[in-house]
Amino acid sequence: MKLSNLLKLKSTFVSGIILPSLIFILGITFLSSFFPLRANYYLNILKTFLFENMNWLYVMVVTIFVIFLLFLVLSKYGSIRLGANDSKPEFSFFSWISMLFAAGMGIGLMYFSVAEPMSHYTDPSVSGLSAVARAKDAQLYTFFHWGIHAWAIYGVVGLSLAYFTYRYKLPLSLRSCFYPILKDKIQGRAGDIVDMFALCSTFFGITTTLGFGVVQLCAGLVHLGIIPESNFLYQVIIVVVIMTIAILSATSGVTKGVKILSQINIIAALVLMLFVLILGPTTFLLGTFSEGLGEYINAFFHLTFNTHAHEPGRQQWFFNWTILYWAWWISWSPYVGIFIAKISKGRTIREFISAVLIIPSVFNFMWMTIFGNSAIWIDQHEAHGALSAMVSDTDVLLFKFFEFFPFQQITNILSIFIIFIFFVTSADSGIYVMNSISSNNAPRSPKWQYIFWGVLLAILALVLLNAGGLKSLQTMTLITALPFSIIMLLFCYCLMKALTIDTEYHAREFSHSTNNWSGEYWKERLGRILSYKDRNTIDAYLKNTVFPAFQELAEEFGSKGIVATVNLKSESPSSVEIEIKHDAMTDFRYGVKSQLEKISDFLREEENAPEIGTMKTHVPMTYFGDEREGYDIQYFTKNEIISDVLKQYERFLSLSSDEKNAIFIGSNLKDQG
Fold this sequence. Notes:
mainly alpha; Amino acid/polyamine transporter I; 4-stranded antiparallel β-sheet; 29 helices; 4 strands; 5% strand; elongated
């Protein structure tokens, strides 16, 4: 039996996604493990080239994401719900935010809470500034890297996925985001390629995070004296424990394991943050938070567009931090986007964007201020440069920081617990997402598939960790961010196109010609509704119904002393119009023309619908002398056409009687002048 057939029988895996992805994942792992130095050397050359020559593109793409989401929040599209109009959120607000955090930032908050502000503070490129200026810059750029821009990247992917999944009822898959331009082709090879990219990107991102995170956990355990040294055996034990819990959590579902662990973690993180705030330089921290928030808002657009092109000495820092962060967030966006889309059904677009952009950003600002500014303050006043001296030893810097607080043992244990749970929540949500991608969002997958992804993650992370190939894998993940950023721009285009159609569909009113319907001619009207007209039918309607109506009306105008002319044009498109010319005002014109319209494929192929043998139909569409948009009058009788012309004529006279409309009505005066 072929492997692809076996997959169909025993699992929900889609062979067109899982098989090429596994070949690619195993191939890259092989190269990174057996040729780590050579692979890292060439990948670094490519990464350096992209960062140095295409950094402006990273900046512009992320800027577009931010502006696009802010536009949606303020626009009429913000009230559209991610699901049916009457759908309700599946999770409480606290549970939703907790899971969003655990998947989106999680471990990075612990790893960089002290390390990043201290790195900016001690960077050689700002050595000429005063200590105060360096501290302010450190806080500002940490806010920038962990704020709205980062979450806008996740928000674009998450919003696109949630919209097309719950509003269009498509699979929770990146391919669904291309529906407006690919239509049913998303179920073909093109869709498989998009999902393969997402699957590999997710796998590599989690693998590198798991590998590097285990190193930090081991360093913390060594620092506490729990284990004697950070060797490979202890790393294996930690990975096995983490992945076992993650697999159990993933197999229990999002509503149980992932949700509960995320809530536990966010509460533990809040406790740790409040501990540092209360026992640290509290007044200083509260003051710098307020000041830092103001600096961030004030410098928002400058930071957004700045590429440091006029600052050669600052460029390397810019590549190593800002551009690397943008690339890293983009490379993680398929994984985080799918997960936050999964938990966001029932939210409105405005609620989704506001929560995703603002709440995590503000929390990150508070977290980074409390930990980062505490570290800088301690380094200046108590440690006498001891923390600055350890800035390159990121794995133990957080634990060294806690030596300047009481209850050091308790805070270190709590920190390790939080790091551990962050790893578990990242891994279990990653397992869930990878299974969803590889099975094209199948409703029920066997539990062995979750176990498969967890075991594969653990094995490959350990192989790469032992062989020294994690840096190569991380570098390759960053390189893939640039092409995926272009894909994300297409997501924005497709989402905007879909939202426009969505609002037009739900705002569409009854046809103008049905406004005054009664039940008098219902059988005749039903017959017209169920028939689709060709050009000859509409030409006959213009000649036999519209033209006589205009002639009768023109005769009545003539009896009142007003000259009205009727013109019938037989060229394509056919049309007939009634016109009243004026000297001092613009002419009054009411015309009807034959207009071609396309019929959708799904309506033509529907069995329980009017029989349609053509892809196109013709309708009688009105037009006016002032170039207003016309409307379809195919159901009007002769007297109803006369009535509609009189409505338009009454409107014309009413507007003409008001002097403020002279700029529109008096156009003939300008022509004569």
